[in-house]
Structures are given as structure tokens and as C-alpha cells.
Design brief:
This protein is mainly α and 150 residues long. The chain is built from five helices and three strands; from the N terminus they run ααααβββα. A three-stranded antiparallel sheet has the order 1-2-3. The protein is globular and about 50 Å long. It starts with a helix and ends with a helix.
Length: 150
């Protein structure tokens, strides 16, 4: 089993990768698929940050060992987010990104339109994410990781 330090290091690495993709690589390449890669790295960063908190709590025997699925780990994390001072925005971002990335795998169509990436689903529902949205997610993830490091 990985320690909380390992999870935090993975979270920080994923965050730095997403930040570099958005602020450096995108300005050079101008390919909107970079936005999707940055979102995947942000999702990984948030999940690893959450796992770092859970493993820290488990290390000091404040919680019991957990299953490896996301839902059960997030349910336990929801009970701890006030203790660590996480905002509702940070915790909802974890769920939203996780849901978006899972739905993206099943989506039959994705394309770019006017500086946005648009994902179309089977039920004719669409979701678009712009570069500004990703920058807001980066800012929220940064504050989340600061709180995880405390």
C-alpha cells in the first residue's frame, strides 16, 4: 500500500503537468486536445490528493482500511472535509471531474468549437469546457493541494 507522501507526490506531479500544459504548451501548440489531457491530469491530482488525506487518517488509525473504489473512498472523505477546511467547491470539483472523465470515455463524439472542447453523449446531451474553465479548475486544485499538504 502506498503512503500518504507517495499519494501527495503523485498529486503534485499531476498538477504541475496540467499547469504546464495549460499555461505553456497550449500557448505554443494551440491544440484544444491539450485541454482534455490537462483535465485528466487534474482529475488524477485531485484523486491522489484525496487518497493522501485518507491514507494519513488511516496511518493514525482514525479510519478503517478502505476499498479501492472511488465511491467508498469519497464517502469517507466527505466526512473529513470540514476537519481539513475544504470548501464545497473543491469537493464538488473532485466529483465533477471524475464524472466528466468517465462520461468522456463512453462519448461517441468530441470536437472543438470556438475555443471550447465539446463532448456529445448518446442521449443528445452536450458538455463544453473552455480553457478558462480549466484555469479555474487549476486554481481550485492548487488551493486543495495546499490544504492537503498542511
Amino acid at each position: 500500500m502506498e503512503s500518504h507522501d507517495d499519494f501527495y507526490k503523485k498529486a503534485l506531479t499531476s498538477f504541475k503537468t496540467a499547469d504546464h500544459l495549460v499555461y505553456v504548451t497550449f500557448n505554443v501548440v494551440r491544440d484544444h486536445k491539450i485541454i482534455l489531457t490537462a483535465l485528466e491530469n487534474l482529475g488524477s491530482s485531485l484523486t491522489n490528493g484525496m487518497n493522501a488525506i485518507l491514507e494519513y487518517e488511516r496511518l493514525y488509525k482514525r479510519i478503517m482500511p478502505l476499498a479501492d473504489n472511488f465511491e467508498s473512498r469519497f464517502d469517507v472523505f466527505k466526512k473529513l472535509f470540514e476537519k481539513y477546511g475544504f470548501s464545497n467547491e473543491e469537493t464538488s470539483l473532485i466529483v465533477d471531474l471524475k464524472r466528466f472523465l468517465e462520461e468522456r470515455k463512453d462519448a461517441p463524439l468530441e470536437f472543438t468549437r470556438s475555443n471550447k472542447v465539446v463532448i456529445c453523449y448518446d442521449n443528445y446531451k452536450m458538455r463544453s469546457i473552455s480553457l478558462d474553465d480549466v484555469k479555474k479548475y487549476l486554481s481550485t486544485t492548487k488551493t486543495f493541494l495546499f490544504k492537503v499538504n498542511k
